[in-house]
Amino acid sequence: MTAASPNTVDPAEVAKFEAMAAEWWDPNGKFRPLHLMNPCRLDYITRQIAAEFGRDLTSEAPFAGLRLLDIGCGGGLLAEPMARLGATVVGADAAPRNIPVAQLHAEQSGLQIDYRHTTAEALAAAGEQFDVVLNMEVVEHVASPLDYLTACRQLLKPGGLMVCSTLNRNAKSFMMAIVGAEWVMRWLPKGTHDWAKFITPDELYGLLRQAGLDPVDRQGMVFNPLGWSWSLSPRDLSVNYVTTSVKRA
Amino acid sequence: MKTDTDVLIAGGGLNGPALALALAGAGLTVTVVDAQPARARADAAFDGRAYALAIASKRLLEAVGLWSGLADKVQPMTAVKASDGRPGEGPSPFFLDFQSAELEEGPVGYMLEDRHLYAAFLEAMQANPRITHIPATSVIAQEPLAAGIAVILSDGQTLTARLLVGADGRRSGVAERAGITRSGWGYGQTALVAAIAHERPHGGVAQQFFMPSGPLAILPLTGNRSSIVWSEADEAAKTIAALDDAAFLEVLRPRFGDFLGAISLCGPRFMYPLNLTLANAYTAPRIALIGDAAHGVHPIAGQGLNLGLRDVAALAEVLAEAKRRGEDIGAADVLERYQQWRRFDSTTLALGMDSVNRLFSNDNPLLRAGRDLGMGVVQAIPALRRGFMRQAAGLSAGPFGKLPRLLAGRPL
Prior knowledge:
The complex is a heterodimer.
Chain A: H1 11-18, H2 32-53, E1 67-71, H3 79-84, E2 88-93, H4 98-108, E3 114-117, H5 120-125, E4 130-136, H6 145-155, E5 156-167, H7 171-184, H8 201-210, E6 214-224, E7 229-233, E8 240-246
Parallel strand pairs in A: 1-2, 1-4, 2-3, 4-5
Antiparallel strand pairs in A: 5-8, 6-7, 6-8
Chain B: E1 5-10, H1 15-25, E2 30-33, E3 50-54, H2 55-63, H3 67-70, E4 75-77, E5 79-86, E6 90-99, E7 109-113, H4 114-127, E8 131-134, E9 139-144, E10 149-153, E11 158-166, H5 173-177, E12 182-198, E13 205-211, E14 214-221, E15 225-233, H6 234-242, H7 245-256, E16 263-265, E17 270-279, E18 283-284, E19 287-289, E20 295-296, H8 303-325, H9 332-360, H10 365-380, H11 382-392
Parallel strand pairs in B: 1-2, 1-11, 2-8, 5-13, 11-19
Antiparallel strand pairs in B: 3-7, 4-7, 5-6, 9-10, 10-11, 12-15, 12-16, 12-17, 13-14, 14-15, 17-20, 18-19
Helix pairs in contact in B: 1-4, 1-8, 8-9
């Protein structure tokens, strides 16, 4: 990465996701694994936000008044639930084809979401500020995780919260995420993930601190092949895991 | 799109209102469209219909706030006795005796008359600001949209909802219009249902006599009254149903026995042809089925309503969780969670009851000896007996090992 290129997005990665954009909202289509994982991700995200900002999830529009950014929003699988819970949502994606797909679906759902073809770095440079930044399964796709996480920190208001998930790097994650998900189950197109870019939880905590954030929680997301569903685990971070960090006021 | 209501429920019998109350408690708005006119209130005379509520069903009624108003109207069942018999011979020496003490959770179940349960549901729905009740109106058309479903009612109005729930019985119009096919068969049997007054107290004991032509269940109501569910082959049932009350009792007496003293009728008689009808899917785009619309089972052991309330508990929990997460409650992946959770459980239970009935409705002497022995074995092994009871009481979790929160008496 050169100083002349402030964009940390790897163009080869963006092109791969563009090809899949139209399939976003089919729960049995190519994005089935994301749809399966979504309840687990949403459980984690909603509880972290509710705890940090003192909101009651059983109330009407519990996230009203919160400005939220979903980076790598894709078709809006996270952005729409956040808008439904009352947040003011900006969805950003580096793949231009995702934006009209997400916009169309939000309109059909009767939701107001500001989808933009942009990057975390560009938003940070424009001085945008958010209470919550969702950074789900993105960091393993960027060219420079530290530069990227630094931009994310700049996007947070003081006291703001970032949820960041990614994949651990070890023999098991290679078997599960590359061999299992891409080669055997064909859940993801071959080459979706580059195992060498996976990050261990300790490495991620280190990067978050270097970026000026304060990591406060991490949990595993574990696939249960019997129930065909995902659940949170405080102990098993061996493959997929999710973290929360705050920007101290 | 903005919808008129979050959930529209077609069917205002018992499962529909139970679901409406559970969903309203989770913050959703619900419209209940009932083809029947709202029936008279709690002062209605006893019409002979009653339900055997499993413990789990009682817990659901507690969780939706109905039980406290019903507690003085129920008859607790302290024991269930199942025995094999032939008219005039009395029960065989081998019988199953389920005592509630073995459950360690109080009675094995509760008998409750329809007039009390229905009135409690109606009153609770009318008092709930999140529930709109539209009686004497039916759903005549439905059209799934991108983010909801449009429903046309018989009074001409069109309503939109995120989700349409078919709680409209074993001939579900919602399922039929959605193109959901059904599997099933008749049993060649008809159930005769009536309320019986008797001389001696029943002591809260429910009796199930397995007769060659079909089972006779004697279920304790309050006072010296019991509800009978008497199954006979179709032709015989038709003949018996056509008899006047005195002749009906003459045919019943040798089957009923004299253990409760003299018997008489204390309400109208009903006749229900028995059949099994399972929907081949529990969901369709923007549609979920509950109760008999999903699975009309043999009413042996009174599992029909209990099975329906398990659907209610599971669907309410799936939708309440989806709402808390901000998900679209009518989306295909949300509905799939409900289908996965319920389908295996209700199909195995339906087929289980089917085979129990086939085994017992038979006069083959070998089978008879076998089931006498079988009941003796079950009776002799307390762990097996408790397992049977927990399953029938709805206290054991489904195959996915997760009991719905409402059935455990916990809030959503």
